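Run log // design_07
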């Protein structure tokens, strides 16, 4: 019996009743941490960039791709926060003297930084 292209490439079949079903498995990839940024980007890919999502999934690169996005987004977020703190003069002295003012300004900066990271890395 002539081999199919699938068999020539090293594929095998399992018999279930009267049917032969190809044995398909995804390659194992290194498990890395995926936090909130990676989860947001994953949801974006599934909803709006389906072909990119399926390509990454079937090639076995999805987890590492999302982990890289997570690292880049977290670094960018922290860098933006530090730059904004320096520009607005928010120091530990302000934190000691007027905690409510410090919390208010930090929350505002984090919201702005989150929007920038979302626009640049997550939903792009």
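design_07 sequence
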């Amino acid at each position: 019996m002539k081999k199919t292209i699938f068999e020539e490439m090293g594929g095998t079949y399992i018999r279930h009743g009267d049917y032969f079903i190809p044995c398909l498995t995804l390659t194992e990839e290194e498990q890395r941490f995926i936090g909130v940024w990676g989860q947001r980007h994953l949801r974006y890919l599934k909803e709006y960039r389906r072909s990119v999502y399926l390509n990454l999934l079937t090639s076995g690169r999805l987890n590492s791709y999302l982990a890289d996005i997570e690292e880049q987004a977290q670094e960018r977020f922290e860098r933006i926060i530090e730059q904004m703190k320096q520009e607005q003069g928010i120091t530990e002295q302000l934190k000691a003297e007027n905690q409510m003012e410090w919390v208010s300004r930090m929350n505002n900066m984090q919201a702005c930084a989150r929007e920038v990271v979302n626009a640049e890395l997550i939903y792009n």
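The beta strands are 13-16, 19-22.
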